Amino acid sequence: MAGWLGNTLKVRVTAQAERGRANAAVETIIAEALGVPRKYAQVVAGRTSPRKVVEIIGLSEAEVYRRLSS
């Protein structure tokens, strides 16, 4: 993870943006950083865009920020 850019979390992946590989890498990195199973972190918008929206299941927004900031 590259860190916060304002209210946006910047994540760098080396996976190619083909057949969902980059999206899967983003989900994996975020899930690992949060300590949740990968299926709990899902790209829900921006699948073909560099800017994505990731839904985190089972954690409040405050808890997500706390875990990613520590």
Account of the protein in words:
It is a single chain. The protein has one domain (3-69). The radius of gyration is 11 Å and the shape is globular. A two-stranded antiparallel sheet has the order 1-2. It has a two-stranded antiparallel sheet with strand order 3-4. The chain starts with a strand and ends with a helix. The mean pLDDT is 92. The protein has helices spanning 21-34, 61-69; strands spanning 3-5, 8-10, 41-45, 53-56. It is an alpha+beta fold and 70 residues long. A hairpin with a 2-residue loop joins strand 1 (3-5) and strand 2 (8-10).
What's the main sheet like?
2 strands, antiparallel
Please, how many helices? 2
Which stretches are poorly predicted, pLDDT < 50 over at least 5 residues?
Answer: none
Gross morphology: globular
Distance between the termini: 12 Å
Q: Please estimate the helix content.
A: 25-40%
Total beta strands: 4
Alpha-carbon Rg, integer? 11 Å
Structural class: alpha+beta
How much strand content do the residues show? 15-25%
Number of domain units? 1
Strand order of the largest sheet: 1-2
Topology at a glance:
Blueprint: E1 3-5, E2 8-10, H1 21-34, E3 41-45, E4 53-56, H2 61-69
Antiparallel strand pairs: 1-2, 3-4
Brief account:
By secondary structure, this protein is an alpha+beta fold. The protein has 2 helices and 4 strands; from the N terminus they run ββαββα.
